[in-house]
Design a protein that fits this description.
6 helices, globular, Rossmann fold
């Protein structure tokens, strides 16, 4: 989808006080370190190096903003929304100070950001719904923010395992309500990209 291919890096934020003024609708990508979050963003936007994919878990500790735009009826480029890449969570070897920084930065952003319309919770399909994932779900449950469970690395599972993982995520989404959805995804095979783009475009335009 052309809207997501238009993504361009705007800024990185290390503190809540540095957040840009709320304007366009924002979609955040959250997930455990090395769950495939950056790879999912890169495949969605069809840009190999847009989001930083670190080989060292827990390294990225910034909120990274990417603007989405498209041409209007008069062929003018108009900004339509923003993707926000959140720092990965759940890395046990990260220093306590770093984990506290994550809690403050990400927790504050999710709780306070008025323009946040949805969160994509990226999970390794082989290990979905781990405690860190559930903690984030519980943090936003009860609000109006949409949730989408993206089960990455699904190419590493057989058909029965994929079905089991998806059913577990769908059942968890059903417990939350109609604002939560789930799907399988493979950045390596580029599978699930169109489904993801369709859901996120709906969030931006709702």
């Amino acid at each position: 989808m052309q809207l997501f291919r238009s993504a361009r890096f705007v800024m990185s934020v290390a503190a809540l006080s540095d957040l840009p003024p709320p304007a366009l609708p924002e979609i955040a990508f959250a997930g455990r370190s090395n769950a495939g979050k950056s790879s999912a963003i890169n495949v969605l936007t069809d840009q190999k190096r847009l989001a930083f994919a670190s080989k060292t878990p827990g390294r990225t500790q910034l909120l990274n903003f990417f603007e989405l735009s498209e041409r209007d009826h008069e062929k003018q480029i108009v900004a339509r929304g923003t993707l926000v890449d959140l720092p990965g969570y759940g890395y046990a070897q990260a220093p306590q100070a770093q984990r506290s920084q994550w809690d403050e930065l990400v927790g504050g952003y999710v709780a306070q950001r008025q323009t946040l319309v949805g969160i994509v919770i990226v999970m390794d399909a082989r290990r979905p719904l781990l405690p860190g994932d559930e903690a984030l779900i519980a943090f936003v449950d009860g609000g109006e923010t949409s949730l989408h469970f993206l089960l990455t690395k699904s190419d590493q599972l057989n058909n029965a395992e994929r079905k089991k993982a998806l059913e577990a995520a769908q059942q968890r989404a059903a417990q939350i309500g109609p604002r939560a959805t789930a799907q399988l995804f493979s950045a390596l095979k580029r599978q699930g990209t169109e489904e993801l783009a369709y859901i996120l475009a709906g969030w931006l335009r709702s």
